[in-house]
């Protein structure tokens, strides 16, 4: 029975070539059989093209099978099948044309086609056109993204075909954009490339610039005589100019084999050292070889004797440079394309510049909010009470650590932040009141000594924090909804946390104004500020007002600490990082006026960002220049931006 | 009589408030002048302008025979040009002796280098002693100024002013807080000083002004209301309305 | 003059006597010249302390006498150190480079030597070219002149800007602090030309004197530091003793009054500011060769605040107070932070002074400010039975000229 079956099978197998060969897919495979069997990246393309362009519905399956190394060739007749392992080394063979099983075969009778990665990539490219029209939108999307990531000339045609019949509007827009980009890069037709380039003049996308920039890539080339006019030349360079130094130009000549290599001082030295004879080289005694002139003489003697390659004199260099010309040549041969690209990029750069200015403005605004937050408490104590609090930075630090401790207890980040803010206020309020009661009230009217006493407190607090929390940075994690950024376009974006800080700063401003203008405490504070003796005789308890004001200033510093801790590392030095800037903010803005603090924070924030933008590599330098600017600014407005004038200024 | 100081058309305002409004004033050599006026009339601001502490918004301040403008000079330069000022509250250097205070005020080269190399000469010592006896502080000359009584501090300050040998003395309420005997002494010092130089006294106390027996200028809301002898101005109806009548 | 000056200031003679005695005893106890009872490193510590005393005198002059709370004098100190450090490092590196190049067959050209020195010094910041600021690094006289000229010039420019715009009091303090911060941030950059945060190192080795042991070098520096301190003290005492001292104390107590006396306050302040900056530069130039290394962290604003702390603890407005404060606090600080102070077991917690010294310092500083505003120097007054004049009237009373009230207005 078994023998019979195998006989039948053998019969069937013999019969199959006729039947299977009838299928169009198998025909194509057979007609490119040699190429497929050779399986070389260099030669396989016609086979893949034939399949991909056959218009046959089975082509996609076949290519996918092939790519997945599931295509097998039967040794006996050379036909190709989809092979599925059936266990025991046997494989089910499935015909590509019909999709039907045509029986099993032993592994020994089959050859697996193992396309290498190069071939698989080619197959992948060919598959793109199928994937772009795949019924599954996710797969279509993936295909588009894949092309975006690695665009190739071959993608252009299938992509064009897939644009018009795309049902999904968003995807269609994406495809259309990609098609325009591919047109720029790969379309053989000059005019359509230029049209596509011009269409992107107002586009800020990074992808556009990534497409346009390579069009303008250049090679620096050297020509005997004048540059070749047939080339698309970007710029002719003169040796000795800023773009091309004489040395670089000559090195180009040397590496192009157009000039003798120069002998470097180190080589001269080595050559001389190699030819020492009787305490002299080339007739020059060793002891005299400590000048360049003597060495040149000795080397010249060696060169004349043929013991060393001749050195190149400056005259040689001049002559070589004069008889050659240097130019940057575009890789892109068409001048019209490079001109259009340059024009488009210039237009885009202008828009990018404007948007970058906007982005910078947002950055500066957020930095200004941070400084405002850090300085507002100081402005209260410094401006309203005339007390210098050097420990202000440590109150900021205390607020940040309070936030950290709260997060250790309440794991939910949103809730913990909500708890941490009033907690930080409470902790630093108490600390501030304690400090006012114990130290500062004894030192009113002695501002320099207040400064030093609070400095003493500052170093003590810093060290205590170090002893408790250690020196390593502690995390203060922001809730998930504060992660991410609000992105306007590829240039402008701002993280939510910075927006939150901006909002917080606005809230503080509002609260401060409310307290000062609408509450009893504010009224009393202003009264004590303007005329303490009169205020006392009006029945205002000066001590209480001072205490509460100081507590308020410290409490706000604590909240600022939580906010700053969300994006900066919480360390014991957190406060001292901000203290000088905070002082600057208050001083630049003008003491005794919340709007002055606001103006000061804005000025310092924008200034710092502006300088960083001019000198982006170096934030240290930016800070240095900013401080110098402030010192000079103080020359012109010694009392700050918003200064009290006349008698109220107290001079 | 030649004009020593001429102030013309001076105005100054603080945050919109006109402290001095188109004020004109002049004083000659060796003249005593009293300035009176209610609070806020601009008396102190007027002195601030002359001494260079406050810069006026408009107007001219012309000084001396060579008619130099004081507006372009710093306080120290004006003081060296010969304008001495005594503040309302006695401001002496309390941490230093009476002698040191006087020595510092003595007319000498004021440049830092010269001061560093300064050695008190016999003449300086004599001058200091002489001034001390003039202001009645000979016995206190080696005491610290901070240990003096209020009146003594006032005199010390006047003594320092005299030591400066100014051509114009601006004196702000010299008699405030003094006993009757002290006032008389102060009057004597001022009258004596006015023989050789111009003296401008700002004072509230009519009795004191009467004793000075000099021309009086009445300021009101930043400008001159009346000028003349004390009897003349006290008879003026405007002056009675704004000042004396109240 | 000298006689009368010393007669009028007996404390100068006492100070010089104490300093001479101290120098002599350290010399006799040191390893190099005496009984070897004091280690070389402690001689260096003492020498450094003398330099700190010198800058404390400068600080006292500018703050205690002239009323300018400068939080920037350590910047001048550091600059002085950098100036001398440049020469030390350059010459020493040149010695090393020349020795190694002498091994080669071909003698080096001068340019090769300079290039090799440049690579040695600036390799750490990825460069090998000499920046412009090193132009005179090979000349000891010029660098020594720069020790006073560079801090002096910086003080002149900064002081001129600050004083002419009448910035006073805490504003001025904050401005000086900003200047210090700007300078240290600038030096932290690698392209500042002074090796960024690596600073200058190996300064303890004197070029050309490699065979002299450190114990001898340390005692040399100790002597020079003592001499500088003595001279600085005499100079400062001379400046503050005469009429000039009268004027600057007047500026401290009532700037406006001095101005109306006809003195150009700005000029005097500038003079004192520049003079003290130069003294600070000299102190730094002597300090850092004993420390062996200088980097921008030394210049950070906090160092200058510590300087103010020393002077305040010692007692400002008297020169010996500044010296006592600086010597005491820095030596005690060395003792505590060096781990020599015994731990205090409390049962539940052991106080390690390395961790708690700063807390103690901060706390005691607050206490001194609150309860002993005259600092340690005030004890001498007690001993002499001098009672301060108590004629300040009520708080903000009529005595406008009083120091206390004047400060209230700033």
- What Rg of chain B, in angstroms, do the CA atoms define? 18 Å
Low-confidence stretches of chain C: 389-410
Specify Rg of chain C, calculated over alpha carbons. Answer: 23 Å
Quaternary structure: heterotrimer
- How big a fraction of the residues of chain C is strand? under 5%
The side-by-side strand order for the widest beta sheet of chain C comes to 1-2
Number of domains of chain C: 1
Mean pLDDT of chain C: 84
What count of helical segments of chain C does DSSP give? 16
The CATH topology name of chain B reads Rossmann fold
How many beta-strand runs of chain B? 10
| SS-derived structural category of chain B | alpha/beta
Overall mean pLDDT of chain B: 83
Organism (chain C): Thalassovita litoralis
Protein name (chain C): Amino acid/amide ABC transporter membrane protein 2, HAAT family
Transmembrane segments (chain C): 140-163, 170-188, 219-240, 260-287, 293-312, 319-336, 356-372
Pfam family, one (chain C): BPD_transp_2
Summarize the structure in words:
The complex is a heterotrimer of chains A (about 650), B (about 250) and C (about 400). Chain A has about 650 residues and is α+β, with helices and mostly antiparallel strands. Helices cover about 65% and strands about 10% of the residues of chain A. Chain A has helices spanning about 1-20, 25-30, 35-40, 45-50, 60-65, 115-130, 135-150, 155-165, 170-185, 190-200, 205-215, 245-255, 265-275, 290-305, 315-320, 335-385, 390-410, 415-440, 445-470, 495-520, 520-530, 530-535, 540-565, 575-590, 595-615, 620-635, and strands spanning about 70-75, 80-85, 90-95, 100-105, 110, 220-225, 235, 280, 285, 325-330, 485, 495. In chain A, the strands form four sheets. Chain A has a five-stranded antiparallel β-sheet. In chain A, strands 6-10-7 form a three-stranded antiparallel β-sheet. In chain A, a hairpin with a 6-residue loop joins strand 3 and strand 4 (about 100-105). Mean pLDDT of chain A is about 80; it is low at about 15-20 and about 645-650. With about 250 residues, chain B is α/β, with parallel strands linked by helices. Chain B has helices at about 45-50, 75-80, 100-105, 110-115, 120-135, 150-165, 180-195, 205-210, 230-235, 235-245; strands spanning about 5-15, 15-30, 30-35, 60-65, 70, 85, 170, 200, 215-220, 225-230. In chain B, strands 6-7-8-3-9-10 form a six-stranded mixed β-sheet, with helices on both faces. Chain B has a four-stranded antiparallel β-sheet with strand order 2-1-4-5, covered by helices on one side. Chain B has one domain (about 5-245): P-loop containing nucleotide triphosphate hydrolases (Rossmann fold). Chain B has ten helices and ten strands. With about 400 residues, chain C is an all-alpha fold. In chain C, helix 2 runs antiparallel to helix 8 and helix 4 packs across helix 5 (about 110-120). Chains A and C meet through helix 13, helix 19, helix 24 and helix 26 of A and helix 5, helix 6, helix 7, helix 12 and helix 14 of C. Chain C: This is Amino acid/amide ABC transporter membrane protein 2, HAAT family. Chain C: Pfam families: BPD_transp_2. Chain C: It is found in: Cell membrane. Chain C: It is a multi-pass membrane protein.
């Amino acid at each position: 029975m078994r023998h019979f079956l195998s006989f039948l099978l053998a019969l069937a197998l013999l019969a199959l070539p006729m039947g299977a060969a009838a299928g169009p897919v198998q025909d194509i495979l057979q007609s490119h059989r040699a190429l497929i069997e050779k399986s070389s990246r260099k030669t396989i393309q016609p086979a893949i093209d034939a399949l991909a362009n056959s218009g046959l519905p089975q082509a996609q399956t076949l290519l996918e099978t092939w790519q997945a190394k599931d295509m097998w060739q039967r040794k006996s007749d050379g036909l190709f099948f989809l092979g599925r392992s059936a266990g025991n080394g046997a494989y089910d063979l499935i015909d590509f044309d019909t999709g039907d099983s045509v029986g099993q075969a032993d592994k020994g009778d089959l050859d697996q086609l193992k396309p290498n990665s190069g071939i698989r990539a080619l197959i992948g490219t060919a598959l793109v056109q199928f994937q772009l029209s795949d019924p599954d939108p996710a797969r279509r999307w993936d295909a588009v993204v894949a092309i975006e990531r690695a665009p190739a000339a071959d993608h252009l045609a299938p992509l064009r075909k897939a644009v018009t019949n795309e049902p999904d509007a968003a995807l269609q827009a994406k495809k259309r954009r990609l098609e325009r980009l591919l047109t720029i890069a790969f379309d053989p037709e000059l005019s359509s490339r230029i049209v596509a380039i011009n269409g992107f003049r107002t586009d800020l996308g990074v992808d556009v610039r990534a497409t346009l920039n390579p069009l303008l890539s250049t090679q620096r080339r050297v020509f005997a005589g004048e540059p070749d006019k047939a080339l698309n030349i970007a710029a002719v360079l003169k040796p000795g100019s800023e773009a091309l130094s004489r040395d670089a130009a000559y090195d180009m000549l040397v590496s192009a084999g157009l000039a003798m290599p120069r002998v470097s001082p180190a080589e001269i030295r080595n050559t001389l050292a190699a030819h020492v004879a009787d305490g002299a080289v080339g007739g020059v005694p060793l002891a005299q070889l400590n000048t360049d002139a003597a060495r040149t003489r000795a080397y010249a003697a060696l060169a004349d004797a043929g013991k060393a390659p001749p050195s190149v004199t400056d005259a040689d260099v001049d002559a070589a440079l004069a008889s050659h010309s240097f130019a940057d040549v575009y890789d892109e041969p068409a001048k019209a394309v490079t001109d259009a690209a340059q024009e488009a990029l210039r237009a885009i750069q202008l828009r990018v510049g404007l948007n970058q200015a906007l982005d910078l403005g947002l950055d500066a605004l957020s930095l200004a909010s941070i400084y405002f937050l850090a300085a507002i408490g100081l402005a209260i104590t410094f401006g309203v009470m005339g007390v210098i609090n050097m420990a202000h930075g440590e109150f900021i630090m205390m607020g940040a650590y309070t936030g950290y401790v709260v997060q250790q207890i309440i794991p939910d980040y949103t809730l913990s932040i909500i708890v941490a803010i009033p907690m930080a206020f409470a902790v630093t309020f108490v600390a501030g009141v304690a400090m006012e009661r114990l130290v500062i009230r004894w030192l009113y009217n002695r501002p320099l000594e207040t400064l030093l006493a609070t400095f003493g407190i500052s170093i003590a607090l810093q060290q205590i924090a170090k002893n408790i929390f250690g020196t390593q940075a502690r995390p203060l994690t922001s809730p998930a909804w504060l992660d991410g950024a609000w992105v306007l376009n590829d240039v402008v974006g701002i993280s939510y946390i910075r927006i939150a800080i901006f909002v917080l700063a606005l809230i503080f401003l509002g609260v401060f104004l409310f307290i000062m203008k609408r509450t009893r405490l504010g009224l009393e504070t202003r009264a004590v500020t303007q005329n303490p003796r009169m205020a006392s005789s009006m029945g205002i308890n000066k001590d209480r007002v001072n205490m509460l004001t100081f507590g308020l200033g410290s409490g706000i510093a604590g909240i600022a600490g939580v906010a700053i801790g969300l994006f900066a590392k919480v360390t014991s030095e957190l406060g001292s990082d901000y203290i000088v800037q905070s002082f600057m903010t208050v001083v630049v803005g003008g003491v005794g006026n919340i709007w002055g603090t606001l103006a000061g924070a804005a000025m310092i924030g924008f200034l710092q960002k502006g300088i960083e933008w001019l000198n982006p590599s170096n934030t240290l330098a930016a800070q240095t220049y900013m401080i110098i600017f402030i010192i000079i600014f103080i020359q012109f407005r010694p009392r700050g931006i918003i200064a009290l004038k006349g008698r109220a200024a107290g001079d | 009589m030649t004009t020593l100081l001429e102030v013309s058309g001076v105005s100054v305002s603080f945050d919109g408030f006109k402290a001095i409004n188109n004020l004109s004033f002049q004083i000659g050599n060796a003249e005593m002048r009293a300035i009176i006026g209610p609070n806020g009339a601009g008396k102190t601001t007027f002195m601030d302008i002359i001494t260079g502490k406050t810069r006026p918004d408009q107007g001219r301040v012309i000084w001396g025979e060579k008619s130099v403008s004081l507006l372009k000079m710093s306080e120290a330069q004006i003081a060296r040009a010969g304008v001495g000022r005594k503040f309302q509250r006695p401001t002496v250097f309390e941490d230093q002796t009476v002698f040191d205070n006087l020595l510092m005020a003595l007319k000498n080269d004021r440049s830092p280098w010269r001061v560093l190399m300064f050695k008190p000469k016999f003449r300086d010592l004599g001058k200091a002693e002489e001034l001390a006896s003039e202001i009645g502080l000979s016995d206190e000359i080696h005491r610290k100024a901070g240990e003096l009584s209020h009146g003594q501090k006032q005199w010390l300050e006047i003594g320092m002013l005299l030591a400066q040998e100014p051509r114009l003395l601006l004196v702000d309420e010299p008699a405030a807080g003094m006993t009757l005997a002290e006032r008389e002494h102060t009057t004597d010092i001022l009258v004596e000083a006015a023989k050789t130089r111009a003296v401008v006294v700002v004072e509230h106390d009519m009795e004191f002004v009467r004793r000075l027996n000099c021309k009086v200028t009445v300021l009101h809301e930043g400008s001159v209301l009346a000028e003349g002898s004390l009897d003349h101005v006290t008879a003026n109806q405007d002056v009675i309305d704004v000042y004396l009548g109240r | 003059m000298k006689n009368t000056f010393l007669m009028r200031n007996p404390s100068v003679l006492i100070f010089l006597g104490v300093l001479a005695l101290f120098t002599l005893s350290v010399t006799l106890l040191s390893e190099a010249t005496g009984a070897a009872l004091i280690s070389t490193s402690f001689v260096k510590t003492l020498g450094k302390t003398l330099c700190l005393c010198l800058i404390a005198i400068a600080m006292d002059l500018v703050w205690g006498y002239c009323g300018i709370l400068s939080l920037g004098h350590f910047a001048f100190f550091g600059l002085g150190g950098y100036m001398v450090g440049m020469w030390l490092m350059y010459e020493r590196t040149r010695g090393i480079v020349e020795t190694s190049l002498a091994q080669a067959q071909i003698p080096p050209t001068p340019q090769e030597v300079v290039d090799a020195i440049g690579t040695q010094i600036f390799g750490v910041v990825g460069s090998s070219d000499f920046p412009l600021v090193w132009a005179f690094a090979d000349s000891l006289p010029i660098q020594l002149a720069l020790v006073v000229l560079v801090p002096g010039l910086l003080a002149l420019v900064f002081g001129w800007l600050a004083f002419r715009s009448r910035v006073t009091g805490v504003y001025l303090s904050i401005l000086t602090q900003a200047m210090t911060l700007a300078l240290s941030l600038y030096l932290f950059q690698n392209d500042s030309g002074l090796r960024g945060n690596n600073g200058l190192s190996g300064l303890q080795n004197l070029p050309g004197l490699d065979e002299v042991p450190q114990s001898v070098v340390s005692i040399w520096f100790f002597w020079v530091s003592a001499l500088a301190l003595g001279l600085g003290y005499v100079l400062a005492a001379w400046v503050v003793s005469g009429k000039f001292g009268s004027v600057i104390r007047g500026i401290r107590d009532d700037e406006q009054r001095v101005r109306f006396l006809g003195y150009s306050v700005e000029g005097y302040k500038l003079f004192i500011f520049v003079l003290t900056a130069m003294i600070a530069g000299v102190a730094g130039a002597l300090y850092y060769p004993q420390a062996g290394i200088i980097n921008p962290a030394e210049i950070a604003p906090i160092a200058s605040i510590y300087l103010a702390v020393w002077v305040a603890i010692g007692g400002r407005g008297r020169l010996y107070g500044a010296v006592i404060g600086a010597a005491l606090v820095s030596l005690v600080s060395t003792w505590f932070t060096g781990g020599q102070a015994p731990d205090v077991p409390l049962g539940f917690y052991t106080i390690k002074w390395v961790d708690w010294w700063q807390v103690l310092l901060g706390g005691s500083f607050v206490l001194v400010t609150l309860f002993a505003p005259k600092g340690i120097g005030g004890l001498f007054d007690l001993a002499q039975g001098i009672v301060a004049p108590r004629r300040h009237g009520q708080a903000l009373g009529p005595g406008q000229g009083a120091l206390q009230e004047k400060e209230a207005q700033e």
